[in-house]
Amino acid sequence: MSFRLPSGGRLIDRTSELKFTFNGRIMRGFAGDTLASALLARDQMLMGRSFKYHRPRGVVASGAEEPNALMNIGEGGRFEPNQRATTAELFDGMAARSQNHWPSLEFDVGAINAKFARFLPAGFYYKTFLYPRHFWKYVFEPIIRQSAGLGAAPKEADADTYEHFYAFCDVLVVGGGIAGLMAARDAAADGKRVIVLEQNGHWGGRAPVDGAVVEGKPADEWVSVTLQALEANDNVTLRDRCMGAGVYDHGYVLGYERITDHAPANDVPRHRLWRIRAGHVVTATGALERPLSFAGNDLPGVMLASAVRDYVVNHAVAPGKRTVVVTNNDDAYRTAEVMVNAGLSVPAIIDARPSVDEALISKFSDLGVEVKVASAIAKVKGKDRVTGVAICAQDSNGSVSTTIECDAVAMSGGWSPVVHLWSHCGGKLTWDEDQAMFRPDPNRPPTNQTGEGFVSVVGWANGEIDQGDIAPVWIMPQGASIETRNKMWLDFQNDVKVSDVQLAAQEGFESVEHAKRYTTLGMATDQGKLSNINGLAVLADALDTGIPQVGTTTFRPPYTPISMGAIAGEARGEIFQPLRRTPMHAWHEKNGAHWEPVGHWRRPYCFQQPGESVEDAVNREITNTRTSLGLLDASTLGKIVVKGPDAGKFLDMLYTNMMSNLKPGKCRYGLMCSENGFLMDDGVVARIDEDTWLCHTTTGGADRIHAWMEDWLQCEWWDWKVWTLNLTEQFAQVAVVGPNARTMLETLGGMDLSAQALPFMGWADGKIGDFNVRVYRISFSGELSYEISVPASEGLAFWEALMEAGEPFGITPYGTEALHVMRAEKGFIMIGDETDGTVIPQDLGLNWALSKKKEDFLGNRAHSRSHMADPTRWKLVGLETVDGSVLPDGAYAVADGHNENGQRNMIGRVTSTYYSPTLDRGIAMGLVLHGPDRMGEVLAFPRVDGTVAYARIVSPVFYDPEGEKQNV
Amino acid sequence: MKRYSAFAIAREAANYHQGWERAWAKRAPKKRYDAIIIGAGGHGLASAYYLGKNHGITNVAVLEKGWLGGGNTGRNTTIIRSNYLQDPSAAIYEKARSLYETLSQDLNYNVMFSPRGVIMLAQTHHEVRGYQRTAHANALQGVKTEWIGPERVKQLCPIMNIEGPRYPVLGGLWQARGGTARHDAVAWGYARACSDMGMDIIQQCEVTGVTSEGGKVTGVQTSLGDIGCNSLGIVVAGHSSHVAEMAGFRLPIESVALQALVSEPIKPCMDVVVMANTVHGYMSQSDKGEMVIGGGTDGYNNYTQRGSFHHIEETVRALIETFPMISRLKMLRQWGGIVDVTGDRSPILSKTPLEGCYINCGWGTGGFKAIPGSGFGFAELMAKGYSPLTAEFGMERFREGRFIDESVAAGVAH
Ligand SMILES: Cc1cc2nc3c(=O)[nH]c(=O)nc-3n(C[C@H](O)[C@H](O)[C@H](O)COP(=O)(O)OP(=O)(O)OC[C@H]3O[C@@H](n4cnc5c(N)ncnc54)[C@H](O)[C@@H]3O)c2cc1C
């Protein structure tokens, strides 16, 4: 049994008792306990079930490498699955549940899998479930899915918050053990800005557990003195409970700080993601002990020797009363010594090495511990818990010499440096034959922007490990039969056994990546931290090659799993992305706006009156505007100032039209094409003065077009004297539209808005009422229209003034849908509707906008490609359904027959389709093969339900073809 | 070749599975082959497979510089769908999807094709219209898709938040027979079947040069020596420009990193694949229980198979908006692959200026789903000089301006 020792425990505070529940049972532990140590103290060795066979499992490790003891912790919005009991610090009220079993941890129906283990070797699912065909989806897969998966799925939205920190330093030290603290001290002494990250809630790493003496002081004392000195230095930042999660290019490092996991709180973020730019990174991440592979090594009670030691020294918890130590190196002897000193029994040390230092043997026989040299565990006895071990010779095939009763086994297969952070960004490893481990190769570090190494490694992480003599023993005994190898676990969580890796090799999965994927070795939540090296060694042996030839799999961030919440940070819900509001936003909100997201903006789709449907609102807005007066908030339209001596030349390249010859005071509608000739944006350009133009873009296009301009100016035409500025948010813009527009504006007094003073396609600065305005006579609706801009700060006041002055005319605000319908009635194209990135101006009958006078413009050369001049390109037409109904959006016109691939032949498609209240019928625009030459022809547009709509090809201008209404 | 089945497993179990043969043979390269495929990714292996299966050409070698399936084929998030907009795309992706339906049986290898359904969310009016257009096109292309409303979306995927606040779900394009498959199994299954037909799959064999005579290909130089061939297929994804250069031509391809990540495994909570293009992220749950997550490509060209973290951040953020519960899951692993992206985001399956040399590349961020269809068409192109499936994907289209642009549905806002 496992239990709490009467005294000791360097990390626990026996005066502070904490209450927690495990699977609903109330238990008690001490402050300083981990969930694992607290459970062990209550003799709760069984902590979980394995992934594939649902084997009963106890804790094996004491840190990040733990594969078995994973818990569902918390409730409701604070529930989180798959938490390692070994790193979960106990707090009062913690509610923990074990995972992956039904109905209970003790009686798990899934354990039946273990009975069939023989039929479920590595990759069995690739070879079976093939017939009958539909069974995979409907029968086999659901069963597999249900028995796989570990923790429960969280049900509720997260009740916690998260944040990001940004930090810069000269030297970042990851790992707060002795080596890390020394590195920090040295860097700080050099006057460097230093940040030190330690994943645990305590400093010092392994040394204090192992009773090390550092610079003449006991480790604990050295650590506290050194910490004090570092804390006193302003250049040094120390963070505990903060793990170095990943190293990325250019000295970018992620730190993952767990702020409230050990002490839940409402008013602080739960996790904090540190985004650190470091001049240099020192990893001092220590080493992890490896298990050994022998039959039954996965039984609860078999643990890493170092973990056993940790529990005794740190938490005063003994995993057993009689512990057998099994090892291939000197280090595990420390565990035996610790146990004996704690008054516990160690009947034997099973040492696989052919010979062991005599001094060591006699030291331990003095302590009453028998050392069995060249020996191995033939088998661990027990069903749900260790009851004993059968011993055999290491170089035998397993015939048992003796049996020893025990209730715990402490195993050590040697140590592996934690090289993850070194490797994330390309640091290479070298195999150290003597020490049987991969260590960082100092000649091949990860390199920075100047080609120099930017990560270095110190201490155990660098392979400076004090494990004494080690023999490269990976399985016990050496000559174990297949039956025995079938019971030796490598990857505990995923149930990968020695026989599985050997099967992979036998079947040709020779590359380490193949073997990993075929067997799932190292793919569990510990990502192979515990036993990947053991697996590689078994693979190398099976392939009759060396471990370095086999190599490792790729080390990828994060070092241990980090929360999605921390990755996302603050940006969630309303502030997930910036929300852009026009100055009139609040007014719209108050007046029934039905919102539509357009990029980051919100625009009113329409303004609903009480009891009105969306459709009715749109129709009312259109009719009202066409017959009297409407108001549109056009502030979101892009407004980019282009200025400089070469601005005209620049705009001539950017637009298909000529812009350099536009007269100040005049406006011109312009088109922009991509280099491939496709129409990408349109808008009205106004020439402000000799070297200033103001370019209007589409709402969605503003930022993109500004970036596009800068791209050309910075990368291609860097010597042209042109400056651009995106003023979209600096101005509010209102379109005053309808036959009564001028009359209404004149009631406000101010500038002359007559057709003579301000003709169509002209603009002027002046005053309307008390407002300083710039007025453009442009129209996207076909009506008399003034687009008026005022400084953003006056937008709302101006809008309200217009609404008030418009009252006698029955003014109505209108939204984007009315805007769309009115432009369609006029046959004006809309970027994003008539265009989709594959349409050129010629397709839309806009050849008039392609200047013939210019030598060049973006897209010009592309237009001469053969397919662009192809007469079979679909061209813009108007479409009217035969019965007056509205054509389905996105429908295609078909011709008879099928193409080579059996698809219906298509000859056109609908690009926009609306009900027009002005014409009281459906109208549409579309692109049709030879369209403009086929006026009057009726086309068939199949609907998705199989029925067909018929529409006649007509002119795309449905309303006021002569333009009499806008030009008055 | 020993056939795989539940009975075979039971039989082999008696001897602790020590009787299983190699999945694919290990052979040294011969002096000469009728056809050589460079690149043992899914597309290269499938091309070889259909050369043998459909055209009787089995004197074939597939040369792989690393380990087979180790490129993007073994790194992708395995979404399979065919509801593409443009005719040529819909044809080849639907061919692929329909071949996936029976691939496990054809290959005698369980590739775990799981037609659990794919939803592409519409979260703006613009997207609604784009997907309705796709639904119309698909109906005429013989691709089964359906426009569904927000309630149906919620019903299919209860863990989704359809109410915003920023981008409420307005509906979605639903392909019920889209889904996922096990990526490694696709590569391994094809490799095993190729090997069974007598083809040589040669790993750790990097092609370093292409030899020709009088404008016609004669063979390749490799790290294992020179190997002759009558026809050559270059199927190397992220390394396409590089190998094309060896064959003496240039490609309109950029190689960029695309990243993905998985959470720790949890019990089943999501039965469909969801793609959310407005916020930019997609997610499904693997049979192991991991949430498999992906997003957009990095902004710069790169060959390192690593990407920048801010992409991971944006993707995770987008998915927490869509699936709030994942906030309390943890990211287990992130990785990247180098994808080969063309100017119009559609692949190139083409003859090349070098006679006898063909290229299959440009699958970019979405070619896993296409593997069987691409192999089917490319094999036909190599064997006969023409395939209706690949006809529109020739590389001359870039010179002619005849693009096959699939980014259309996600075009621009007004
Ligand atoms: C993160 C990520 C997520 C993705 N998600 C999806 C998805 O959900 N759905 C989807 O459909 N697609 C997805 N894709 C895309 C998909 O993975 C690829 O389009 C597809 O796998 C490409 O297959 P391939 O055979 O062309 O390339 P690869 O699998 O990359 O194979 C090319 C092979 O060529 C070899 N090679 C290169 N140069 C040489 C040489 N000189 N000599 C010999 N061999 C050489 C390489 O080693 C490699 O094995 C994703 C990609 C990534 C990176």
TrEMBL record, chain A:
GO molecular function: aminomethyltransferase activity; methyltransferase activity; sarcosine oxidase activity
EC number: 2.1.2.10
Keywords in alphabetical order: Methyltransferase, Oxidoreductase, Transferase
Matches recorded under Pfam families: Fer2_4, GCV_T, GCV_T_C, Pyr_redox_2, SO_alpha_A3
InterPro entries named among the record's database cross-references: 2Fe-2S-bd_N, FAD/NAD-bd_sf, FAD/NAD-binding_dom, GcvT/YgfZ/DmdA, GcvT/YgfZ_C, GcvT_C, GCVT_N, Sarcosine_oxidase_asu
Gene3D superfamilies: 2Fe-2S iron-sulphur cluster binding domain, sarcosine oxidase, alpha subunit, N-terminal domain, FAD/NAD(P)-binding domain, Probable tRNA modification gtpase trme, domain 1
Residues in GCVT N-terminal domain copies: 584-854
Origin: domain of life: Bacteria
Domain SoxA A3: 486-569
Domain FAD/NAD(P)-binding: 170-422
Protein name, entry field: Aminomethyltransferase
Organism: Thalassobacter stenotrophicus
Gene that this polypeptide is encoded by: gcvT_4
UniProtKB/TrEMBL annotation, chain B:
EC id: 1.5.3.24
Annotated gene: soxB_1
Keyword Kinase: no
Domain Rhodanese as annotated: residue spans: 36-79
Pfam family, one: DAO
Hydrolase found in the keyword field: no
Molecular-function GO term, any one: nucleotide binding
Protein name per its UniProtKB record: Sarcosine oxidase subunit beta
Lineage: Bacteria, Pseudomonadati, Pseudomonadota, Alphaproteobacteria, Rhodobacterales
